[in-house]
Amino acid sequence: MAKGIKDRVAILGMGCSKFGERWDASPEDLMVEAYVEALADAGIAAEQIDAAWFSTHMDDVGTGRGGTPLSIALRLPDIGVTRVENFCAGGSEAIRAAVYAVAAGACDIALAVGVEKLKDTGYGGLPVATVGTYIPQWYPNAVAPANFAQLASAYRTRHGVDAALLKRAIAHVSVKSHANGARNPKAHLRNTITEDQVLKAPIVAEPLGLFDCCGVSDGAAAVIVTRPDLARALGKSDLVTFKALQVVASNGWEMQANEWDGSYVHTARVAARRAYAEAGIANPRKDISMTEVHDCFSITELVTMEDLGLSEPGQAVRDVLDGVFDADGAVPCQIDGGLKCFGHPIGASGIRMLYEMYLQLLGRAGTRQLVDPRIGLTHNLGGQPSQNICSVSIVGLEGV
Amino acid sequence: MVGIVEYGGYIPRLRLDRRAVAEANAWYAPNLSGKARGSRAMANWDEDSLTMAVAAARDCLGTAEDRGHVAAVFLASCTLPFTERLNAGVLCEALTLAPATDALEFGGSQRAGLSALIQGLVRARADGGKVLVIGADNRKAQAASGQELDYGDGAGALLVGGDKVLASFLGAGTVTVDFVDHFRQAGRETDYAWEERWIRDEGISKLVPQAVAAALAQAGVAAGDVDHFIFPSSFKKMDEQVANRCGIPTEAVVDALLDRIGDTGTGHALLLLAHVLESAKPGQVIVAAQFGSGAQAVVFRVTEEIASFRPAKGVSAWLARGVAERNYTKFLSFKGQLALERGMRGEQDRKTALTTAYRHRAAILGLVGGRCQETGRVHFPPSRFAHGQGQGQPLQDTQVPYKMAERQGTVLSWSAEYLSFHRAPPHTYGQVDFDGGGRILMEFTDVAKGDIEAGTKVEMVFRIKDIDDLRGYTRYFWKAVPVRPGQALEQQAAE
Questions:
Q1: Architecture of the domain spanning A140-213+239-397
Q2: pTM above 0.90?
């Protein structure tokens, strides 16, 4: 049995750019914005960084392939930089690589940076992805909203949920995230909305309307990690440490075996189970103080609550409507606004989620600060429910 | 004795309301009001003469997995999507016919349907093999022309051979002369036609009876003994006039379905033959004729075997399942005659890797998956490794080809979205679980709002997947449509 990552690596510093329609900024500017904050927070010199991992999804919108876009933008001191790419879970992958490198003893201090400059694509919504030469010959020319919307049709069937009730529950998800995002100065969308607005919005992909979809944003986030002993030697006292880092990639079972019912995300359930085991969490609903999950669409967040064991199967509709995941609920979700309102620059999102956990655990979250959070969970879903990469990461105060 | 041993047809679901077209064009061509009756069959955006040919062939051959009895495919059309690339070869792949199948194309004239049929009969008589003869057209005319209203889209298919003959071949007649009633130069999209009276009086009235007389003479049948006379022409009562000139009783003239589907072109005589055979009685004589660069005619006698065969759906069922389309701009757009704003997502490059297409042609064109011999699980696309029971050694190279096109499925999940560029929004797709195993995330076509729900039963159709406008390449795959009983032409397409 592997020993796991629990408490072996700590966060030394973090930074995050303002997310949004950053017409003023290039990807390089965004990376610098996040990195400068992280470096200052870590209190180290750039030369102390041993290696870096770079997460970006779209190679054709200004960030480019390979590791050099990061090393050149940040003028890194002749170190190894690896680009990682795992759809929307790329940021979490960059974290995992940096943390594992430190845990392995190969590095003392490692950097992970994620960036995406979606507003330079010209699209409202994600651009069309290229998926090789074979898949487009048979696979629908599908878009993310419809891929995720299928969760809703299957969920309704699986649990016998009335379409109008489910629509209202997922509307609540969006209303909650807007309320949270309004209190976050770095969030893309800072307006509050009503349930009525969500229900009346134009349909993007049945049954998802405009307000059921997350923002398409520019942004970058950065994290510097090290061993707890080195963090203390560098003058840090309250340490946020990694408790679990789990990633599961679909092996195609969902789309081929006729067994998956389409109403949940299989990889998320496996990743959550492993993450809880790694972190030593027996009762997630009681032990997890807060979550940042991959709410690319409102239905995704609702289903994710069940995948993470925070709601019983079929009960998330009720829990969501009861406010369990609101900022003042039992397990607050998307305190920072989530993908929905903080925004979703794909390669940066996993690190942005960690940033909120870090701020909350250190009591630095300003007007949206939760009372005494101790354990936070982040969840990324790259790809689509039927074929994806899912990450579940757990962080918390050292020793908790 | 050779003759027709199986038959089928295909008519697209959409039926363009002629009054709607006349009204849309009334400001410009008020003369069209004279044709503003009934409807014409209208191919969906993802249908062309090749996909309709596949549909007609499947109607004819039925759902049996083994199609080894088809020795050759003769495809007749004046509107095939590829001028160079064997369209009939695509059709063979879609029907999962063996590589040894001969495949030929006929065209150049509206009579090519009967030309292919006669050659198929000759071939069957010569070597005893069965020949699948298909005629199909996706017809295009100038906007606001009379042809736009007269024409229709559709396909007919006949399997000819020597065993269990439903209608025995008695004789054929041909007249080949360069009488140019209309023409279309290579590279042009629409026809140029000469004056109607000259075509009727000097062309059809003189040339068709010669071909019919020759056919009847070879058949040894008197004109007065003809029970069903098929002569597709969009000229009013032309069929009756030709019958009279030939000495064929007026009551033998077969309804050419022009009010309901229009003149579907090269394949129309085959489509009408398939329709007549649905109700023909043993001993009856059927004569079919087509006009074009002369004329061609063929004579059959229905046998006692006629009751032993039914097509998968049949022309009557295709006729009954239409939905009225009253949107003229949709028709123009589907025919490529109206350039609508596509948005940025419409700029996506749809280049096809021909190497990949070839390597996976069975999966893509034939919808052939892989069935694991160890677990029975069906994989699409087929793969080297199969999903096991979650235990033990990987199941490597355990899959054997497994045909999925003739199997029905059930919708597991779906959505309909307005974001991507799609020629008929909303773009609707979802997971389909196949009866007997297998699951594909696939597109739905021929659907309106409310047609698709989780649990909806679907069947497969061969359709255009993507059109690469940049390079002029059409790519095909299979889509799901709801399994529908025949329905009256009352319902309007809702999208």
A1: 3-Layer(aba) Sandwich (3.40)
A2: yes
